[in-house]
Write a structure and sequence with these properties.
Blueprint lengths: L6 E5 L10 H10 L3 E6 L11 H5 L6 E2 L2 E5 L9 H22 L7 E6 L7 H10 L3 E5 L5 H5 L6 H16 L3 E4 L5 H5 L11 E3 L6 H4 L16 E6 L8 H11 L5 E6 L5 H10 L5 E5 L6 H6 L3 E5 L4 H5 L3 H8 L4 E4 L3 H9 L2 E4 L4 H12 L3 H18 L2 H21 L1
Parallel strand pairs: 1-2, 1-5, 2-4, 5-6, 6-7, 7-8, 9-10, 9-12, 10-11, 12-13, 13-14
Antiparallel strand pairs: 3-4
Helix pairs in contact: 3-4, 9-15, 13-16
Length: 417
């Protein structure tokens, strides 16, 4: 292959046909002519069982936009906590053994880990990186074990300490740690026993999927534009962390004050509760659309007057930038934020919208009323400010060029040793 092209191994538990941001990275690197190999599992997220189309024709999923896809067996997520734990365990064990065997005899310039939860997905990268003497890049998209404690999954101090030791083992054996938020730095540093140089700890945020950042919105088949109401759209996971009790209270507070339509797209643990509450409280101004493909979202966003991001507050969540923030910014729509920390800073710094504190029902009602009662021209200015901020801070071409340069720099350092 041409000497200016790179050989990159991407390790990720989740990959196409699962809908993940890592798909964009793999496609773009492959289209630039780099030789990309993806080590991943069997597609089963979020349904919890292996996709039927994959079971019917697994060989059809061995190549993605020119990138070779190497899959290892794993236990599907299922619907129970025990099956989810086994899913996590089976991937890093399988990738560290079966994956090593399938990749035998191959060499790479860089190993890149898409480190969404759980962080143990980076263990195969450490194993393979040491065998092949290849620089390891871990994209830290979640803070472990802090997130486990924050969401109540794990509270036992001894267990949290054990997870912390695993995290430290991974971080200290990785060559580069890429942080999705500047707020992650202090947490990550505390697990690193060797000195952290600035060039090893790098701010590397997420970008919006191409559906939002490059493709013009098409007409939605899920939602009709209605200029007689102010439409607020929430899209994403419907979990406890998103604080839907506070959102519904705000919707109820505003019902008699201003015409607002609250549209919720997505599913999750709170889906059933949300449906029951909407019905029992007679919230006809709340529309639940369920989960739909990412490709449908730009059309839905085009029908919105504002996009809502919410997150309960704690030390971990305040340091995290929810992935939807980039998609919202790229969509040229004003943002309503019931959120603290990094996301709040971005909303205020960009001028894209209005924010209140996490859990502040009255505050959400107030800023929604304020945004609903200003002119559409003023809202357009906010939306365009958000788009400009996105292009300046989260542009995918810029970020991927940065990553490409990091890979080349690591290659040169390796050659110089």
């Amino acid at each position: 292959m041409p000497e200016n092209k790179l050989r990159v191994l991407v390790i990720t538990q989740y990959f196409w046909p699962e809908n993940m941001r890592i798909n964009d990275l793999v496609r773009d690197f492959s289209e630039k002519g780099h030789q990309v190999t993806v080590l991943t599992g069997l597609p089963n997220y979020p349904e919890g069982k292996v996709f039927s189309e994959f079971r019917a024709r697994p060989d059809a999923f061995n190549n993605y936009c020119g990138a070779r896809v190497v899959r290892v067996p794993l236990i599907s997520r299922g619907k129970r906590s025990i099956s989810l734990a086994l899913n996590y365990l089976s991937f890093f064990l399988s990738a560290s053994t079966v994956g090593v065997f399938k990749l035998r005899g191959e060499s790479y310039d860089a190993i890149f880990v898409y480190a969404v939860s759980p962080i143990m997905a980076a263990i195969p990268a450490v194993v393979i990186g040491r065998i092949k003497k290849t620089p390891i890049f871990v994209w830290v998209l979640d803070l472990w074990p802090e997130t486990l404690k924050a969401v109540g999954i794990l509270r036992n101090p001894a267990m949290l300490a054990a997870v912390g030791r695993v995290v430290a083992w991974i971080y200290n054996r990785s060559d580069y740690l890429l942080l999705q938020s500047k707020g992650f730095a202090d947490n990550v540093k505390q697990y690193c026993t060797r000195e952290i140089s600035p060039e090893r700890l790098i701010y590397f945020p997420s970008w919006a999927e191409d559906d939002f950042s490059t493709c013009p919105a098409t007409a939605s088949t899920l939602l009709m534009r209605d200029d007689s109401v102010f439409t607020v759209v929430f899209a994403g996971n419907l979990g406890e962390a998103q604080d839907f009790p506070a959102i519904l209270d705000a919707a109820e507070t505003l019902r008699s004050k201003v015409s607002v339509r609250w549209v919720v797209v997505g599913d999750g643990r709170m889906s059933k509760w949300l449906g029951e509450q909407v019905e029992s409280r007679g919230l006809t101004n709340v529309v639940l659309l369920g989960r739909h493909p990412l490709s449908e979202m730009p059309g839905v966003f085009a029908c919105a007057d504002a996009l809502l991001v919410s997150l309960k507050t704690n030390e971990v969540f305040e340091k995290t930038i929810p992935g939807k923030v980039q998609a919202y910014l790229a969509s040229s729509k004003p943002i309503l934020g019931m959120i603290n920390g990094e996301a709040s800073r971005i909303i205020e710094e960009s001028g894209v919208g209005l924010c209140c504190h996490s859990g502040d029902t009255e505050g959400l009602a107030r800023i929604t009323f304020e945004l609903a009662t200003i002119s559409s021209a003023e809202r357009d200015v906010m939306g365009q400010a958000g788009r400009a901020y996105y292009l300046s801070h989260f542009s995918k071409p810029t970020l991927l060029r940065q990553l490409e340069n990091l890979f080349r720099h690591a290659t040169l350092r390796k050659a110089a040793k």
